[in-house]
Write a structure and sequence with these properties.
This protein is of the alpha+beta class. It contains 24 helices and 13 strands.
């Protein structure tokens, strides 16, 4: 049996001549001992002395030689003195106790400190009559566990997701191929326009073009996530931005317009609604709802929103992300911005700074990426922009009568409803803007027709959906019917009560500010003529 094989590569090439000769002599000695039928302890000690190792090392080498049939120099180079690396010094029963305590005690939503878990381990080892491990030993066992699994058990699914490596990336080459949309509650407290007292945190909706990271549209308001929020942001994203920029008094370039091919979102209710899906499908736009637990699939929009929330930290009234970060700062007392000022601030941050800052994933600014990638491409616009906007409104079904329609405690009528009734239509599908119930929209000949109040509203102050529900509840308490002119009187009384409570109630101030902002962002319908020649009014 050959003791030494001509092996190249690995540690053999870098080994010194002296070390190589020493290991070769050791390998020959082991081979000689392994071939002897009878060997004594004296033979083993002599071989160990010649090789410069201990007698125990020679016995281990002989055991390996019997098991593998030979001993090579490479086998000998890998072995070091001391306790074998990777082998636990703890008793197997103690190892089992440590593993069980970490799994059942430390990895729990209560998040006990590791010192408490070490005490649990010591008590269990004492009952077994075995010495307990040290704190550093338990900590090393914990460090061997997967970080994502530890955070998931202690801090929840989001923490596990954040600690999980995600190799690869979701690449989109062309503008309009994929837009991502999401909502977030802004980390800042606002004040109302009148008293300048705190009213609460607003919501921000953002749409981003994945290929260029350009923000296609955004919407800021005090209203919670809904199909209206999504629809308002999408309407701005699809339309040319000139009129909006002029209204806001801005001179930035914002060239994004046109319909996307795909809208990518999470599984929030508004994105799963039939009205949202069908409004987009009607324009040839697909929708994609990312699977549950796959938040990282929306990483582009999440990072952009995270960037905006990070910049909110410098605003007066910023809430910060945790009580630890906030310290003794009272965000409510520091609040100074109203909803209109915050919308303008976000416009400057997005259009002025974000669009003109080099993006690490692009190697250029989003605006430069858009200009480069849209070369030779043309946006696909809705055939009927107003119809597309109304398609994104929520819908209801009502019965059409000879006097018009009834909805939200009011009667709506126009010449078009009279003609539709004459044609035999009864059950009709209506669209409405929750921010302005002064009119509804009836579809006739594939077009949405605006249907105003049947009776003229001289005050010009139309209710929102939220305020209608509030006034209805108040009318029930007061025992007043919520119909016709009495409904308007009840709503007027409700609004007066809200304004009266706003001085001392944050909830009332929020309600008043929501009502004001909704009226400010929707056009009041034109006044109705008192002529009822079409058969509607009297």
């Amino acid at each position: 049996m050959s003791a030494v094989e001509p092996i190249t590569g690995g540690d053999l090439e870098s080994m010194s001549e002296e070390r190589f000769a020493q290991l070769a002599a050791r390998a020959r000695g082991i081979a000689d001992l392994a071939t002897r039928e009878r060997r004594t302890v004296w033979d083993v000690e002599t071989a160990a002395e010649r090789a410069g190792v201990s007698r125990a090392t020679v016995y281990r080498d002989l055991q390996r030689a019997r098991g593998e049939g030979r001993t090579t120099i490479r086998d000998l180079t890998g072995r070091k003195g001391g306790f074998p690396k990777g082998r636990s010094r703890l008793h197997p029963h103690v190892e089992a106790v440590v593993a069980e305590a970490l799994r059942t005690h430390y990895l729990s939503p209560n998040k006990p400190p590791l010192t408490e878990t070490v005490k649990v381990i010591e008590d269990a080892c004492e009952r077994l009559g075995l010495p307990g491990p040290r704190y550093t030993t338990v900590r090393r066992r914990l460090q061997r566990m997967k970080r994502a699994a530890v955070l998931g058990r202690r801090d929840g699914r989001k923490a596990r997701e954040a600690a999980t490596a995600r190799p690869g990336s979701y690449e989109i080459e062309h503008p309009w191929d994929c837009w991502q949309i999401d909502h977030t509650k802004a980390d800042v407290i606002l004040v109302d326009k009148e008293s300048r007292k705190p009213v609460g945190r607003p919501w921000l909706t953002v749409i981003i073009d994945v290929a260029t990271r350009m923000v296609a549209g955004f919407y800021v308001s005090l209203e919670p996530p809904s199909i209206l929020r999504a629809g308002t942001a999408l309407d701005l994203a699809v339309q040319p931005k000139g009129a909006w920029l002029k209204q806001m008094g801005l001179d930035y370039r914002w060239p994004v317009e046109g319909l996307p091919k795909l809208v990518h979102s999470d599984r929030a209710g508004e994105f799963q609604s039939r009205a949202f899906e069908r409004a987009l499908a009607n324009q040839g736009v697909d929708t994609f709802l990312r699977p549950p637990g796959k938040a990282h699939w929306g990483g582009h929009i999440e990072r952009m929103i995270g960037t905006m929330m990070g910049r909110c930290k410098m605003l007066p009234g910023a809430t910060q992300r945790s009580p630890k970060e906030r310290g003794d700062y009272d965000a409510s007392k520091g609040a100074a911005l109203d909803i209109d000022q915050l919308e303008l601030w976000f416009a400057h941050q997005i259009l002025g700074e974000y669009h003109n800052t080099v993006h690490s994933a692009l190697g250029c600014t989003p605006l430069e990426a858009w200009d480069r990638k849209v070369a030779g491409l043309h946006p696909r616009r809705p055939d009927d922009p107003e119809g597309f906007r109304i398609d994104l409104f929520p819908e209801i079904t009502r019965t059409l009568t000879r006097t018009g329609l009834k909805a939200f405690g009011e009667e709506y009528a126009s010449e078009d409803t009279t003609l539709a009734y004459a044609e035999g239509r009864t059950k009709v599908r209506l669209k409405f803007d929750p921010r302005n119930l002064g009119c509804v929209y009836l579809q006739i000949a594939k077009r949405w027709i605006r249907v105003p109040y049947r009776l003229p509203n001289y005050s010009g102050r139309h209710p929102t959906l939220w305020f209608y529900n509030y006034a209805r509840r108040l009318a029930l308490v007061l025992g007043a019917p919520l119909e016709g002119i009495l409904a308007r009187a009840a709503r007027q009384r409700s609004e007066e009560l809200l304004h009266g409570e706003a001085h001392g109630s944050k909830i009332a101030r929020l309600a008043v500010e929501r009502l004001r902002h909704a009226r400010a962002t929707t056009e009041a319908p034109p006044a109705q003529h008192e002529d009822d020649s079409w058969g509607g009014a009297l």
